[in-house]
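Explain this fold:

***
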Amino acid sequence: MNSETVHAIRISKGLSQAAFAKSLGVAESTIAAVESRHRNVSDNLRTRIKQTFGGDPEVEEALKRAKEFEKLAL
């Protein structure tokens, strides 16, 4: 999971950075730093996202699109 994936998940849920951060129990600055590529996605953040949104079909689609995008970028 990378910054684009985090952004795609947040957008697919229609959440602001503040609302997304609150739903994950992290600081808004964490989400902002990840999305702007100033910070890597930590294992903790990855786990929180999967626990909170893991079974959501929209999130699964966002993850799939992000993975396809990563392949195209190579």
